[in-house]
Amino acid sequence: MLGPFEVRTDHGVLTDVPGARLRGLLVALALNPGRVVPKAALVDWIWGENPPADAANALQRLVSRLRKVLPEGSVEGQPDGYRLTVEPDAVDAVRFERLVGRARDGEGPQRVRRLCEALALWRGAAMQDVGLPDSAAFDAAVTRLERLRLTAMEDRFDAEISLGRGAELVAELTDLVAAYPVRERLVIALMRALAVTGRDTEALLVYERTSEALADALGVDPSPELSALHVALLRGELGRREENRRTNLRAELSSFIGNDRLRQPPDDRMASAHKIGQAARI
């Protein structure tokens, strides 16, 4: 469902599911794999505010058609609804959400791997070949998946930049910021990626364009996080901060490391100075 609509059997054979409503029914069941979806929810999903006069029978006929195109036993009827008998990971949209959830528990390279695996499931726009014009529930599901995709991409960029891979992401981020000019997390990622490659001037231009876009499109100022990043860039701090993210070494606390005398506690140093003074007078 994350791209052109496609159904395959366990043997990898493509199965044709014709018609928007038939596909819509399958999508509604597939988004809840192994769970019973109430009949009322299915009617609302398929027909929205314009259900047929005999909605219960219309739904039953649609389920009957779906059973004919799917392998036997794929759709089970229950007194209050219907259930699709598939594993969650057999549904790309469900697997995507599960991987994104698991990525939140990971760190570093593991987090990046899980996010990349999740995003690789996308082959285009969500449910692009379905289309239920009267269904607000369907539209909401599409919007939620697309937003989650963007959030997963932002999480991936943050993780990769923190691992020192900002230079590799500049081109991809530039295209995404052009497509989503007021998506501030993408802007922040692009500014950080540009800064670590020494392209501070370009990063400042990105901020200026974003500030104008936010004012024109939404009538708001940049967020505190984006503004703070802008200030850090003006002060020349951004590149250094990114360098520090890529190392676990402690910052040097003193330039006098190795001088045993100057590492003595203050009272010991005063005692040493007093002894030296006495020796000089003798």
Structural notes for this entry:
- The protein has 282 residues and is mainly alpha-helical.
- The chain folds into 2 domains: 1-163, Arc Repressor Mutant, subunit A (Orthogonal Bundle), CATH 1.10.10.10; 165-248, Alpha Horseshoe (Serine Threonine Protein Phosphatase 5, Tetratricopeptide repeat), CATH 1.25.40.10.
- 57% of the residues lie in helices and 4% in strands.
- It has 12 helices and 3 strands.
- The protein has helices at residues 20-30, 39-47, 55-69, 92-103, 108-119, 136-162, 170-179, 184-196, 200-217, 224-234, 238-245, 266-281; strands spanning 36-38, 75-78, 81-84.
- A 3-stranded antiparallel sheet has the order 1-3-2.
- A hairpin with a 2-residue loop joins β2 and β3 (81-84).
- α8 runs antiparallel to α9 (200-217).
- It is elongated.
- The model is unreliable at 245-282 (pLDDT under 50).
